[in-house]
């Protein structure tokens, strides 16, 4: 019986290896998996590196161009000499910015006008802060840019053109340009340039200072125009740019009567004070001011957890409200009382005779205060008028002084004094229903320059 012949790799026919098919199959699957993994890794790596490489290339190109530009200037003696001369021409922003600034909102001055840039000559100001525009014999263009809020360092008065250019900010990777608008490069005429409408597209939270500045420079290489004149750049104060959603919670200055009450300072939306007021039906600024007139103690009780300091801040803000020219009329059997939009008495006609607030005695005021409380509870039934004839023009803004204590303050005042002058006798301590014996009654109401009402005087012509 012949012995079995064992397989020997070394003696087998090399042209027909018996395990070649099985081994090739196993290695083929592994190689495919490896190739897929490698391809994905390379693709992800390329995707990650591309933005970084683009940024590095852009920065290197810009630095190279700047070096070339500076070297070309320094090779020319005329430009080199002029660069050493101190600059007297400077761009300035004559007004401050309207703050706060939100993304997507127009950037304007405090007077809601577009940004203005002036060209001034510091040598002609005589050391004063005069901003008289200087003119050039040739036209120039001004570019609006965004700067880092930390620039310039130190006292903030000295910087070079290169320092300025190096601190110009660009958008974050994958974001739109920081400024959006069609007038970021404007022409200057007679020393004045007016920027068009533009807005920020991103907030300022992503840089270390968390603040931006707006800068203005001559639209030319190195801030030297083609005539070789150095014009110093302008910049605003540093400010924060907030996301547009923050504007939804913005406080209004001044507030309007229709504003929700949380638009007032120290009252947060959906906060404790807001909820307390809402539970009492006080939803708008007008609601709060009406209650502060009709029942100030009740309002203070509703906001019992509010400190006196916060109370004063909130009420002071509320009193800057624009009132407009609406008036409300409350009628009874023998009286007609006219109120302003916050339930303050403007005038009262009782038993056919007209009385202004300052014409009332202490007893009469108690009666009128009762009418005020009644009118407040029936406010939705009052007749609304746009104007009231015979009234002296009222100020559109509420002024300082606690409206809730107006009547208390009046109780402590002498309402009228008697004197005779030019044939007129001033009435004193007149009560409702007291007849005028002779002559005509005149009611004169005065207002001070700051908008506060002065006591009215009632005169009787005795001639």
UniProtKB/TrEMBL annotation:
Keyword Hydrolase recorded: no
Similarity comment: family membership: Belongs to the plant ACBP60 protein family.
This protein's name: Uncharacterized protein
Subcellular location: Nucleus
Record keywords: Activator, DNA-binding, Nucleus, Transcription, Transcription regulation
Region (Disordered): 1-23
Coiled coil (residue ranges): none
Cellular compartments per GO CC: nucleus
Xref: InterPro entries: Calmod_bind_C, Calmod_bind_M, Calmodulin_bind_N, CBP60
Main localization category: nucleus
UniProt GO BP: regulation of salicylic acid biosynthetic process
Chain ranges of the Calmodulin binding protein-like N-terminal domain: 89-244
Pfam families in alphabetical order: Calmod_bind_C, Calmod_bind_M, Calmodulin_bind
Source organism of the structure: Tripterygium wilfordii
Keyword DNA-binding recorded: yes
Segments forming domain Calmodulin binding protein C-terminal: 326-384
Ranges of residues in domain Calmodulin binding protein central: 257-321
Domain of life: Eukaryota
Molecular function GO terms recorded: calmodulin binding; DNA-binding transcription factor activity; sequence-specific DNA binding
């Amino acid at each position: 019986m012949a012995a079995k012949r064992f397989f020997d790799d070394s003696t087998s026919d090399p042209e027909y290896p018996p395990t070649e098919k099985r081994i090739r199959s196993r290695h083929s699957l592994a190689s495919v998996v490896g190739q897929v993994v490698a391809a994905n890794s390379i693709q992800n790596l390329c995707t990650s590196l591309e933005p970084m490489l683009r940024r590095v290339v852009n920065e290197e190109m810009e630095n190279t161009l700047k070096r070339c530009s500076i070297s070309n200037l320094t090779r020319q003696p005329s430009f080199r000499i002029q660069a050493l001369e101190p600059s007297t021409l400077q761009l300035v922003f004559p007004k401050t910015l309207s703050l706060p600034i939100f993304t997507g909102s127009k950037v304007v001055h405090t007077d809601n006008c577009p940004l203005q840039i002036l060209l001034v000559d510091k040598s002609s100001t005589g050391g004063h802060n005069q901003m008289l525009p200087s003119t050039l014999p040739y036209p120039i263009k001004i570019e609006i840019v965004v700067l880092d809020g930390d620039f310039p360092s130190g006292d903030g008065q000295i910087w070079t053109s290169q320092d300025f250019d190096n601190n110009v900010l660009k958008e974050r990777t994958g974001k739109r340009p920081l400024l959006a608008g069609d007038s970021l490069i404007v022409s200057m005429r007679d020393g004045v340039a007016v920027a068009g409408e533009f807005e920020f597209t991103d907030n300022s939270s992503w840089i270390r200072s968390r603040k931006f500045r707006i800068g203005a420079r001559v639209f030319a290489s190195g801030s030297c125009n083609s005539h070789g004149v150095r014009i110093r750049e302008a910049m605003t104060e540093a400010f924060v740019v907030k996301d547009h959603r923050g504007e939804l919670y913005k406080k209004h200055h001044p507030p309007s009567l229709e504003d929700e009450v949380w638009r007032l300072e120290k009252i947060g939306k959906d906060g404790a004070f807001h909820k307390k007021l809402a539970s009492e039906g006080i939803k708008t600024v007008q609601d709060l001011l009406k209650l502060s007139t009709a029942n100030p103690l009740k309002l203070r009780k509703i906001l019992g957890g509010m400190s006196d300091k916060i109370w004063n801040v909130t009420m002071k803000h509320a009193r800057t409200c624009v009132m407009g020219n609406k008036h409300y009329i409350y009628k009874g059997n023998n009286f007609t009382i006219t109120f302003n939009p916050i339930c303050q008495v403007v005038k009262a006609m009782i038993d056919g005779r007209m009385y202004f607030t300052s014409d009332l005695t202490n007893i009469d005021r108690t009666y009128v205060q009762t009418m005020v409380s009644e009118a407040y509870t029936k406010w939705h039934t009052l007749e609304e008028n746009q104007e009231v004839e015979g009234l002296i023009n009222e100020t559109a803004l509420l002024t300082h002084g606690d409206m809730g204590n107006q009547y208390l303050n009046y109780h402590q005042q002498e309402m009228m004094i008697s004197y005779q002058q030019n044939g007129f006798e001033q009435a004193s301590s007149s009560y409702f229903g007291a007849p005028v014996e002779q002559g005509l009654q005149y009611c004169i109401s005065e207002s001070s320059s700051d908008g506060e009402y002065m006591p009215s005087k009632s005169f009787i012509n005795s001639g």
